[in-house]
Amino acid sequence: MSKDKELHISFNFITPKSGFRTGLGNYRNYKDWVTSGFWVDYFTRKDKAVDMSTLDINEELNFLNKSNIDDEVVKCEVLKTYREYLKANIKNAKSGLYGFKNGVFLQNVDVEHIKKRVSKLNVPFYDMVISSNDNMLKNGMIGKESWKRLVEDCLFKWLKSSGLGFDINNLELYYAIHGNTNNPHIHISFWETKIKRNKNRKTFGIQQKIISRKYKELKLDILKKFTIDEDFIKTNELIKKIRDLKINFKKQIIQNENYKNFNEINDLEIKALKNECKINKNKWYSRLTPGSQNTILKIKNELLKNNINFKTIYEDFYSTLNEYKNLKIESKKIQDSFLRTLKKEEREFERKINNTILKEVLKFNTLNLEFKRHTFIKPKNQTKNVRPYSSNFNNLYQKDFSNFNKDIIRLKRLAYQIFEAKNIEEYEKLKGITYE
Question: Beta-strand (E) ranges in 251-295?
Answer without folding.
Answer: 252-253
